[in-house]
Amino acid sequence: xxxxxxxxxxxxxxxxxxxxxxxxxxxxxxxxxxxxxxxxxxxxxxxxxxxxxxxxxxxxxxxxxxxxxxxxxxxxxxxxxxxxxxxxxxxxxxxxxxxxxxxxxxxxxxxxxxxxxxxxxxxxxxxxxxxxx
Length: 133
Prior knowledge:
The chain has four helices and five strands. By secondary structure, the protein is of the alpha+beta class. The protein has one domain (about 5-125): Cytidine Deaminase, domain 2, CATH 3.40.140. The protein has a five-stranded mixed sheet with strand order 2-1-3-4-5. The longest helix is centred in the middle third of the chain and has 11 residues, at about 55-65. The radius of gyration is 14 Å and the shape is globular.
């Protein structure tokens, strides 16, 4: 994919949401993450009949970045899209992984069908992350 900027992430998140496997909730979520170098990584939710095994779009996009060699702190923006909902914030598990892998000043934007959006910094999403020292 050609290099992009953060303004293009919502459209990319919406597009990848079409690939979601959501037979139980019917909520199709997509996420797009931007690296410092302008590379984008996408992910969608993948549900399981054993609900605890469901994979969120945000963590799938971050895992794709890591699999490609992105280093913690090199991811500078994320957009998340969920069909049929108003703006949703990432779940707690995603917030923890976001805080570990994204740059401290990175922004996460949630968007939806009605063009509303909300943006948080990583610190606003999870002000007291779990850390091992």
